[in-house]
Amino acid sequence: MDLDIVELSRLQFAMTAMFHFLFVPLTLGLSILVAIMETVYVMTDRPIWRQMTKFWGMLFGINFVLGVATGLTMEFQFGMNWSYFSHYVGDVFGAPLAIEGLMAFFLEATFVGLFFFGWDKLSKTAHCAVAWLVAAGSNFSALWILIANGWMQHPVGARFNPDTMRMEITSFYEVLTNSVAQAKFVHTVSAGYVCASVFVLGVSAWYLLRGRHIELAKRSMTVAASFGLAASLSVVVLGDESGYDAGLNQKMKMAAIEAMWETEPAPASFTLFGIPDQEERETKYAIRIPWVMGLIGTRSLTEQIPGIDNLVDQAHQKIRSGIVAYDALMKIQADRENVPQTVRDTFRTHEDDLGHALLLLRYTDDPRMATEAQITQAANDTVPQVFPIFWGFRIMVGLGFSFILLMAFFFWRSSFCNQSYPRWALWIAVIWIPTPWIAAEMGWIVAEYGRQPWTVDGVLPTALSVSHLTIQDVALTLAGFVTFYSLLFIVEMGLMLKYIRKGPTEDVEETEDWTRRHEARMRGTGTIATPAE
């Protein structure tokens, strides 16, 4: 097994996935915010809300187009770089992706066109419905992709067929209702809502600092702060659900998040700070908070969270059981028609551990011939790199709580202080614009890096999933993707900054006329002071 191919293929997919995820959160969140703004326009008939819808909708459109361009290339990689993965689990993994394309992406793409070109063709109510259908399509798309990804994290509703050598669906309902997939979906879309809220808040703050587009900025900031506060609170709550689910179904990932080398007495403590040392199997300079990790991982004070060393010992046992399954599988493959029923029964008894035996293929062509040293090596391979997972989780969580504080402050100023904001707070809002993307990328590092060494957790090792390519082939495509994606990122940033600097350009006169008439009416009723007063 040529591990250089594995690492290059992993690097390529990681790079394309993380580039793509620069666009996804903003698309998810802006689609909802734009739909909310248009709903207010339909309800109030105030031109300023139509202007807001068009302005933020333009930024949504730029982001959406580039997100589609980066997302399409990811799916092609399953055939290019991960062909054995596609062969082995394609019957299960391909179904949600196909539904995403047919149901969600086509819905989203169709109504995006109506949204941008239907302003003068559709009634206000119909156009508002289109905006909500665009938002629904974006979120449906995320749902099906995360169902596919959730199955890789926690493979349910499928079974390995020893005759076809493939995973096959046994219950699509179980795939659909997978607890990991559902927890990931609500957590991910909530993170997207936070991302868009911080973006709208920061851009609006910049306008206020520059004294431009005041009315649009204040209203946008109010919407962003209200929506963002709810979203940031939900991210934390739903993140706790993801942590609990990992404690149930991905115990090694949970142990790596905490850098818990040995099983602690319940309830386990949470390490607020530390430097994980994987070679020494210890966390140096650890500062721990009692009980917290036990509550996150088990929601009890009596259940233990197994440590990494304990899980490695369990992996030893699963590898030995998997070797029995592998031996039975080879007998079935040798003579499928005449294989004794006892052999099939033996395979079914040990089939859940077959994936652990496949870990040995890194070190030997036949797992049945593996030495004790190779079994120990394979068991140790079940431990992911702890340092990036440990700190990725803490950066994500720390930023998550900062969003609650940011949104709560601006919600308070918007709701109870007549939309007046100190300059220092406006500058913080501007500076904080990139942080939701940092938190989102850290979340994906924890989710995906924490699954290693598995492509499908406990079923298919990453080292077996790659295509038979040369190092030159993968290196060339990697360089091509880096160049292409970097250009797209430059285009995205250039267009976004151009239109943000430019500000709203549509319905300007109509909005200004309405504002003047509205202010005149307010002065006439004595609601606001005249300049002489």
From TrEMBL:
The protein's matches in InterPro entries, at most eight in alphabetical order, are given as:
Cyt-d_ubiquinol_oxidase_su_1
Give a GO molecular function annotation for the protein. Answer: electron transfer activity
- Protein topology in the membrane: Multi-pass membrane protein
Keywords (alphabetical) are:
Cell inner membrane, Cell membrane, Electron transport, Heme, Iron, Membrane, Metal-binding, Transmembrane, Transmembrane helix, Transport
BP GO terms, sorted: aerobic electron transport chain
Query: Would you indicate the residue range of the signal peptide?
Result: none
Q: Which GO terms describe its cellular component?
A: cytochrome complex; plasma membrane
Keyword Membrane on this protein? yes
Q: What are the transmembrane regions?
A: 20-43, 55-73, 93-117, 129-152, 185-209, 221-239, 389-412, 424-447, 474-495
Q: Where does it reside?
A: Cell inner membrane
The family assignment reads:
Belongs to the cytochrome ubiquinol oxidase subunit 1 family.
The record's section on PANTHER family has: CYTOCHROME BD-I UBIQUINOL OXIDASE SUBUNIT 1 (PTHR30365:SF0), CYTOCHROME D UBIQUINOL OXIDASE (PTHR30365)
- State the name under which the record lists this protein: Cytochrome d terminal oxidase subunit 1
